[in-house]
Every structure is written in structure tokens, then in C-alpha cells.
Amino acid sequence: MTAPPSKSYTHRAFALALLAKSPSTIRTPLLSRDTLATIDACRRFGGSVEENGSIFRVSRAGQLNAPDNVLNVENSGTTIRMMMSIASLTAGGFTILTGDSSLRERPMGPLLVALNQLGVDCWSARMDGTPPIIVKGGGMEGGEVEIRGDVSSQFISSLVLSCPLARKDSTITVKGNLVSRPYVDATVEMITRFGGDVAEADGVYLVQAGDYLGIDFLVPSDFSSASFMLTAAAITGGEVEIEMSGLELPQADAAIVGILRKMGVDVRDLEDGKGLFAKSSSDIVGGNFDLSSSPDLLPVLAVLALKSKTPVRITGVAHARFKEIDRVAVLASELEKTGANIEEFPDGMLIEPPKSIKSCQLNPHNDHRTFMAFCVVGLGSREGCLVEGSETVDVSYPDFLRDMRGLSARMDVL
Fold first, then answer.
1. Catalytic pick from 34, 185, 296, 403?
2. At what angle do helices 77-87 and 109-117 cross, to 10 degrees?
3. What is the residue extent of each domain of the chain?
4. CA-wise closest residue to 320 among 310, 332, 311, 328
5. Which residues of 87-122 are buried (b: 16+ CB within 10 A; e: fewer)?
6. Helices (H), 27-93
7. Given 1.10.3110.10, 3.65.10.10, 3.30.1700.10, 1.20.1530.20, which CATH number is that of 7-218?
């Protein structure tokens, strides 16, 4: 199979193209519910987005303008957090950002505090740090700011992405442990490609004020999406070959390769270096896994643990409780239905695998990654599982069911 394009890089490419002084060409972006929210936001802020097949041309004439109506980003936490900072760069007026019921419960407080320190007037409409968010335009002053790193890396990505267009240089100091750091590394990589100047040392990001210039960018393949197929091969005793591009770019979920190898799964690079091959082992073993840098791998690792010969301890994922759902709690409660014995703790869980995966009905609570992981559970159960929520895949991987069937999975939508 061919891995779908990266959701993370699609978000960043369109956001930076909106801010650039010259046009950009974005090739093979992921078109999913989340990324379409970012593309819509670009248009609403005054950007021009022209589509020609899988090639998009993005440009902007003049200043950014506040949208003429409320900006609804649906379920996309990346979109709302990036656009909160971008909204401050508009010529004036106010931008109101909101989302669906799940997004309106997600924390934005640390980013609001940081933006205020940079001279931006912004606040939560409910005064509790959650959306709807109101941002006053007129520009970002810049300067020195401190922000927590233990809730979401998206806060830091949002700041470093917009600070180059502030009136003066900025210094962003991350307090405490920065979770999901590879996502910030990806943002910095993209900023550099668009001509920005960001340097980091010991959790301090030095951002030079300046301008972005448009580029021609090919969106890389998505390790997060590929992780479900690699795990499916491991849990079914099968094998899979996945064609991928852009493997040199930083991605948090590239960690799935090391995790699978540690558990005894044979994972190799394709001979041309443009993809991965995975073949299952009859002796998948457990161990201790810190996912603080790659929390989106929590669902697939929890599922893979069900086929392990020994227990799997997952730590470092307290911030996964602030995703679309509390993924730690949902995975722990739902996967016990398979016969596993699961102990949940604040930043993770201990999974003692069952002798065999019981057929059961699994509820992902409207979370796309959890739904896809539960489908893989069904592949590992002799009698299969009933998994709710097939409509959620359009958030990040619209072709998931098609691709799984292409790999011989029997999946019926009721």
C-alpha cells in the first residue's frame, strides 16, 4: 500500500503559505476533515487557495483580514491553536474561533497567557481557557514569553510559527518538560524552509522577526497513519509493504518503527529507501515504553500489547488525556472487554494481555485514532469485533477502510 500524506505537515504547510509574502505550491496534501478546516481558515483570513488535482497554489494579496464571521474549525485542535496566533496578525478587528463540542472542552489557557505576554489581546469567551476564543487583530508585539510545555506542543508550534511576523524578535521559554517535542521540531523545520529564523537551546526558542517567502513543498507520508497498518500486520501474523516519501523529515510517530522492533516485529526499510516492510513474529514481547514524545501512538501500542507474550507498561502520556477524548481512560476501559487486565494510572497504563482476544463491541467515543486502533483489535480476534464510529476516520485518514480492505481485512459497515 501507499501511506497517505501527513496531517501534521499539511497543517503547517498551509498555515505558513498563508503568511508568506510570495506564492507557495503544496503538493499532495492530506485532504481530511481536520486539514480542510485549516484550508478553510486560510481562505477566511484572506488567502487564495487554488486547487489543481493534488497540487494547491496558496497566495495572499496585502494584509491578513479578520474573518467576516465566526471561524468554526470543527474538531481540529491543531487548526484552532495555530489560527489563534495568526488571528493576532490581522490588520484589525476581532476573530472568534470555535469548534465542535469536543474541541470546546480542550484547554487553550497556556496559549492565551503567552499571547497576552506578546502584546496580543485575546481571551476565552467563557473565561475558563476553552473555546470559543476571541482574538483582537492589529499585530503581535513580540518580546519575551514563558509557556508550559506539559499540556500540548501545539502551543509552542503556534507561537514559533507566528512570532517571525511580530514587530520585534521573540524569546519563547518552555517551562517544564516539553511533550511531543518532535511536532515542534517539524514546525521549526517548516519555518526554516519558508525562510524564517528560529534557533533553540535548552528549551528556549529565539525567533527573529522577518518575513516568510513561498516555497514548493511536497507533503511527506504520514507515519501516524502507517502505524495502523504496521500494527495490523504484527497482530494478524501477516506482513505489509508500505511505500512512503519524505522520510527525512522529523515525525513523532516514526517512533513506531523502534517500538515494533523492540517488541520482536521484523521491520525493514525497502531496498530503494522509499518505504517500510513489516512481518509479524510469533513471539511479540512486552516491555516499558515512554510515549511522551509520540502520544498519538498510544492507541496502536495498547492494541499491540494484546498480542504480547508479556505485559506492556506505557508511560508519559498524561497529555493524551487532553486530546479529542481522554484516550488513556477510554483505551483502558474499552480494551478490558477483550479479556486484558489493565491498570490505569495518571500518565499511562499497564496492560496484561489476554490468552486470546475476545470478540466484543468497542466504543471509541468519537475519536478517529481510537476507532482505527479498535479495528485492528478486531483483526486480532478470532470472531472479530463490532467497532462503533466509522464516520470518524475522515478526521485524519479518510481512506482507512478502503486501504484496510486492500490488505485483505474483512470489514463491513453496518
1. 296
2. 20
3. 7-218, 223-406
4. 328
5. bbbbeeeebbbbbeebbbebbbebbbbbbebbbbeb
6. 33-44, 77-87
7. 3.65.10.10
Q: How large is the C-alpha radius of gyration of the chain?
A: 21
What pTM did the predictor assign? 0.95
CA 70, 71, 76, 78 torsion-angle sign: negative
The pLDDT assigned to 280 comes to 87
Q: Which CATH architecture has domain 223-406?
A: Alpha-beta prism (3.65)
Distances (CA, A) of 318 to 31, 244, 346, 363: 29, 30, 6, 21
- One-letter amino acid for residue 411 of the chain: M
Q: How much of the chain exceeds pLDDT 70, in percent?
A: 100
Q: Is residue 281 pLDDT above 80, yes or no?
A: no
In whole angstroms, what is the distance from residue 336 CA to residue 282 CA? 23
* Active-site residue, 296 included: yes
Query: Strands, DSSP E only, in 226-330?
Result: 239-243, 266-269, 275-279, 287-290, 312-315
Is 27's pLDDT higher than 90? yes
**Averaged pLDDT score across all residues of the chain:** 96
| Residue 283 pLDDT grade (very low, low, confident, very high; cuts 50, 70, 90) | confident
For range 279-307, the mean pLDDT? 94
Can you read off the three cell numbers belonging to residue 174? 518552555
In tens, the pLDDT along 198-243 reads 999 999 999 999 999 999 999 999 999 999 999 999 999 999 999 9
CA distance 400 to 409: 11
CATH topology agreement for domains 7-218 and 223-406: yes
Paired with 172 in beta bridges are 145, 205
